[in-house]
# Entry
Amino acid sequence: MEALRTAFTLAPSSLIRAHQSKPFFSHSFTQKRSKSPLPNLTQFPKSKFTKLNAISPSVLTEPTSPPEEETGSLDQDEKFDWFSNWYAVMPVCDLDKRAPLGKKVMGLDVVVWWDRNENEWKVFDDRCPHRLAPLSEGRIDQQGRLQCVYHGWCFGGSGDCKLIPQAPLDGPPVHSFPKACVAVYPSTMQNGIVWFWPNTDPQYKDILTKKKPPYIPELDDPSFSFQMFNRDIPYGYEVLIENLMDPSHAPYAHHGILRQAQPR
Ligand code: FES
# Structure
């Protein structure tokens, strides 16, 4: 539990600003395939980490052993494609079925909303196809559709436009035109988390049948206790992971905030 608690401590913003003054990673993101539930964080080739050591004057910069030789060129298959993986969008406990919620994940603006007609959380592009208003500013209408706040267009769980209020009833069915549809990201709920696949290309529509999000059995095991929450922080995951791997800072940087041993 201590490790778990520590894992949720965050660095003060002053420390984060100091880290942000230099780029953290300078290597290409290539990795070996792994069955680890956290493959993206743990399996970079060791030789790549020698570059990481150079980013902070407080970190040992001399390698303790000669760097490993790069062994030939990597196959195309071994390149890590950031947009061909599942990503957590929100824990369900932080979502409200009555209102859409906007998030930025992987640099993409998405809206998460509960589709009561399909009994599923949906993740859409957070732009109305009409005038690009954020759909996250909209509402769930009486029929359970996502309604844009600007001119009231309504969308179903497949991204299809169900209603354009201004369109004449006896006119062409403009709401059914493809350009009136919202881009939908593949999504699913697992471990109490809404996940999305950051690509709306139709070829990924059924990606869940081929590849699933990493499963974390402890989150579904009642003998474990945990706390889940979402918080927007103004830096990348690299800085956060570095911070979480450094629990010795907690009694000092979080002095008086967290329940833990007194600093010496
Ligand atoms: S911008 Fe959404 S309905 Fe007009």
Observations:
- Residues 13-20 form the longest helix (8 residues).
- Helices lie at 2-7, 13-20, 39-42, 49-52, 237-244, 250-253.
